[in-house]
Amino acid sequence: MKNWRIDYVLLIAILCLVGLGVVVIYSASMPLAQARNLPANFFIISHLKKVVVGLMFLGAGITIDYKYWYKASRPLFFVSIILLLAIIFSSAAISAHGAKRWLSIGGFDFQPSELAKLAIFMILAAKLAEAGPKVRNLKEGFVQPLVLVAIIFLLIVLQPNYSMATMIFLVSMVLLYAAGTKLTYLFSVFASLVPVLAVVALLMPYRRSRILALLDPAAHTKSSYQQLQALISLGNGGFWGTGLGHGTQKLGYLPMPFTDTIFAILGEEMGFVGTSVVILLFGVIMWRGLTIARNSPDVFGKLLAVAITVAIGLNAFVHIGVCIRLLPSTGQPLPLVSFGGTSLIMNLFALGILLNLSKPKTSGLQVEQRSMA
Asked: Domain extents for the chain?
């Protein structure tokens, strides 16, 4: 039992979100299953299988000492690069909506960018821990880590998956800040990169249409349709919600009701109370995760905890922000809640590592300080 002396508040928050996801997916997926002449429980059965696998990965993350991931960070990083390259060049890549983001491996559709996300956080945490006091230097604390981030960023952009690439970039910058990288270096990246990304977004028709739809939905009804329907869902829910199974927006009105816009369906059927509970649970994850980071006995553990926590929080913020028209559409799922395979499994695995970091430690990881070259 000593091996399971973990942060149970964090564990309960995780399991509550997964449980809420199961309930909402069951309700939201039935109309689509019936429209496709499938059993009403087709999608929920598929999701439950992934939940079981995800919980196994959660248990593995809790059981394996976090120090192991310091050594494994390099192999995982290179495996991620190989898988991302396979997306571009392999016939096993699956194309959907003009993007190649999945590999079909043994009948299972796997999204390499989810592994790459965790791998880049691991290797950054390891490299920045190795840098020690040199993290304040331009080379060790900024240029070399940025090269690692750029490799993953560019390979994911080529799929293309801009929202995932942007999320990895932002969390990586937070990680560098937490490690002690000079703010002037970080500001220089934003000052040079943000204008470039803005120009690229405006030059791409579908990206531009999403931004314009956010600013003026009446003039861009097609591009703003999903977000307007999400707002209708939330409005229908009121304070208490229409009740589980009694929402109407999932009946062909709201696209992606149990993936990209599941928060809106949850709001319709569970109301303001349900959405508040979800936001509170993500707040608990952020609170406990950052507490674990602060109490970590070594730099690697601290940075890894920060990365995992901020990534989950940022993903949740983006998904909710899209549903309430605070942000343009991104296609990001709601962590632990939305229907999905690789995303759910990798998020549970990462949170398992965070729970392992919450265990009482007698000593921290001894890191040899060296150059990142």
From this structure: 2-357
